[in-house]
Amino acid sequence: MSHTSVQKDYQAKTNTGKIANYLDQRVGMSGIIKEFGRKIFPDHWSFMFGEVALYSLVILILSGTFLTLWFNPSMAPTAYDGSYVPMKGTEMSVAYASALDISFDIRGGLLLRQIHHWAALLFMLALTIHMLRVFFTGAFRRPRELNWLVGCALLIVGILAGFTGYSLPDDVLSGNGLRIIDGIFKAIPLVGTYLSLFFFGGEFPGTLLISRLYAMHIMVIPAILLLLVAVHMFMVVLHKHTQYPGPGRREDNVVGFPVGPVYAAKAGGFFFIVFGIIAFLASTFTINAIWNYGPYDPSPVQAGTQPDWYVGFGDGALRLWPGVWPFHWEFNFLGGTWVLSVFLPFALMAGSVMMAMIFWPWIERWVTKDNREHHLLDRPRNAPFRTGVGVAGIIGYGSLMVAASSDLIATHFHVSLNDVAYVLRFMFVFGPLIGFLITYRFCLALQRKDRELVLHGIESGQVVQLPHGEFIEVHKPLDEYRRYKLVAFESPEVIPAQPNKKGKISLLEKTRGGLSKIWFQDRVAPVTPAELEAAHHAHHDAVEGTDSSAQIEK
Amino acid sequence: MGNHSDGVQAKSSAVVTSQEESKEKFPDPGLPHHAPRLTDVDAKHAKTAERQVVLLFVISILGALLFWFAYFGIKIGGNYYDVLNPEANNTLRLQNLLMGLGIAFSMFGIGIGIVHWARTLMPDHEMEESRHAISAEADRADAQEIVETILDESGIKRRPLLRNTLIGSVILAPLTFVTLLRDLGPNDPSVLKYTLWDEGVRLVRDPSGTPIKAADVTIGSAYHVLPENLNSLTHENGYIEEKAKAVVLLMRLDPNDLKVSAGRENWNVDGIVAYSKVCTHVGCPIALYEQRTHHLLCPCHQSTFDATDECKVVFGPAGHALPQLPIAVDSEGYLVAQSDFHEPVGPGYWERGKHVEEMKSEA
């Protein structure tokens, strides 16, 4: 290997070349640049949310680092001596006092707190929308299933990051949040009481919790988040980005802009736009005005307390589960007290939404028997069942999230609190089913519309009278690029239960076959050239839709 | 593409078509032709776009200057939310607003500038790149062989005793650290049974700490109450933990409205009843008392308890009634507790049923 150094080195002429040369000889830069400098990334507005999440995370880390310079995570009591008059002399924890100091006695400290909190809200929002995008377009399919899991993990760890941060200022609001966590821990069968005592270092609230949460919030959780992001990015590069179907876009290519300069400029510029949006929100909309709440005290609580939005589904689940209807959900059995009215909302309601999300790629693969690689995305309408399931999930999750504000809904719209709860309970149970059915039908309708467009063209608005007196509207055929977009999709069919090697159909396979039937029995196939040909021949009979070729019936 | 992608409809019972089947697919017309932008063909437009980008960068610079102006130029200080000097708040607000807007503009300027630059002046030709298999078939075979060789050379397959002891030690070694977590907290749940309330402990108002004369409690009124001995505690020896368990809500109802179960007949003083204020759902303080219906409402998750019916759950997610504090009147006419609660306060937990039984036999 040593002979390479004796070879005459490549002599760069420009300054850029010299720097590149230096770096190349030390870290092999040209290989990296060759690989990534002109790497192609597809461009679509829906690919932006992942970027927003990434940039929000960067802003979270930047602003959070600033906050650590002044925040003191101690629960030791102190008499407040800052410049916020209403609390002068009040006994409070050092943590709360330092959070007040950041807000009032550090120039720009309040702004940093606001930037940090707003960035957290945006991070979780962007992450959620990004996951929805991936779900609805089928981007989680092979080879990206593991990256979907990384996304699920990011979502869960993100919730933990938000929750630990929310608890740090030690005001009434965050203290009550922790009190609720204490109750949730205690509801876990068998080990719950111990978990609670361990978590708080004794009875609630103890004197250790804030510093424990602080270590988690600024070290352990961000490290996990960054690790997950690194794995995520590695896999994105490895798999190359998915793309929407369209002319020239195939399973075996990537169409888009090169990283340098266009994509890097757009993505890099977008970071600053996201930062700008967060800074604008932070300076104009105050959230979590901790000085209004006062130091944590177990006795008072404010009506209308709300968790941050991404914890809402958990809080809403807690609100919706009935405690004593139709029977007592808290009972003694097998030597212990089962606090199911608190345990089940998490294990069953919030848990089922999470579990369905985590396992979806494998559920879909099992039913469809589709184990091929997919780099072309589905338009949501072309996968009606999956899109329906996604909407059902949104409605289930959404009703829980709305339930977290049930008291505000009742007071703002002057309706009974109990009625709001009844309606939301109904929504959680039946809403997903209704939403699924409507969405499923809606997707089929949109697919039929696509067929209609391909077969008969666009209504031109031009009405002509034929020699024999008939009026018709001229339909303009689609050009081949637009048409290709509407016909280039797969329409999988029902795969009935298959016998195994022994010639038997297992119960599991029967279930799969049944699901496959529900999944695909109503389907709209893409137009074939022969059908288009026939439509042209049939001419305006088909325009009027009398020809059954354009009709998909059950 | 794949095996279900042929658009064949005959196999599906759902689709009826009178059409002749065709396996044919529309051919891929390839990438659409690139339409040049105005800035590509007209130097004047390109120049305008350039100027717009420059303007955006200048806005960014002005934003940064605005930040420094707000940081150094606006003098803040003194006391905030002081009724005597409301001006100080406005200056603080203004400073935060301008600093924030300064940062926002400095970021927007750069961001929108660069994106505008990329969209108007950088080439917008879409390019194509092939995808390659994530891993070649041959590589996989090679890799498998390498792994086999490694395993073989290490001898781990041939020496099961070596392998098994390694597995054992690797499992046990980390468990030493898990054990260290044991002292995160105490493990005696029986601390949850008791509160500061005891025989003769006076009920005092929260937060003033003054005792309450039974005669002062009028029908329809409600008090937030603490045990008098709470004040002897400091933060170091459990003030806040005890307060979190001992908070009580005191109300006077019409004695005729009260439903009293056997064994609790003398727990109230002429319709004055005291209940734990800690919600039995997940522990929020129950702060809302509705006089007309005598309902107590927890503001966190809306569990509703009926004060006339021994605070049984009438709505919401709470799993059991609020524990009642037996009260009496002392020789000076002040309200005192007869004893501690007869069951643990707060949310349910695994050992709660056991604790209730134990406390019954102790009483």
What would you say this structure looks like, in words?
The complex is a heterodimer of chains A (554) and B (363). With 554 residues, chain A is mostly helical. Chain A has 3 domains: 34 residues, no CATH class; 212 residues, Cytochrome Bc1 Complex, Chain C (Up-down Bundle); 214 residues, no CATH class. In chain A, 60% of the residues lie in helices and 6% in strands. Chain A contains 20 helices and 8 strands. In chain A, the strands form 4 sheets. Chain A has a two-stranded antiparallel sheet with strand order 1-4. In chain A, strands 2-3 form a two-stranded antiparallel sheet. In chain A, strand 7 and strand 8 form a beta hairpin. The C terminus of chain A is likely disordered. Among the domains of chain B are: 83 residues; 169 residues, Rieske Iron-sulfur Protein, CATH 2.102.10. In chain B, 35% of the residues lie in helices and 12% in strands. Chain B has 7 helices and 12 strands. In chain B, the strands form 3 sheets. Chain B has a 5-stranded antiparallel sheet. In chain B, helix 2 runs antiparallel to helix 3. The radius of gyration of chain B is 38 Å and the shape is extended. At the A-B interface, helix 6, helix 8, helix 9, strand 4 and helix 11 of A face helix 3, strand 1, helix 6, strand 9 and helix 7 of B. Strand 4 of chain A pairs antiparallel with strand 1 of chain B. Chain B: It is found in: Cell membrane. Chain B: InterPro entries: QcrA_N, Rieske_2Fe-2S, Rieske_2Fe-2S_sf, Rieske_Fe-S_prot. Chain B: It comes from Rothia aerolata. Chain B: Keywords: 2Fe-2S, Cell membrane, Disulfide bond, Electron transport, Iron, Iron-sulfur, Membrane, Metal-binding, Oxidoreductase, Respiratory chain, Transmembrane, Transmembrane helix, Transport. Chain B: Belongs to the Rieske iron-sulfur protein family.
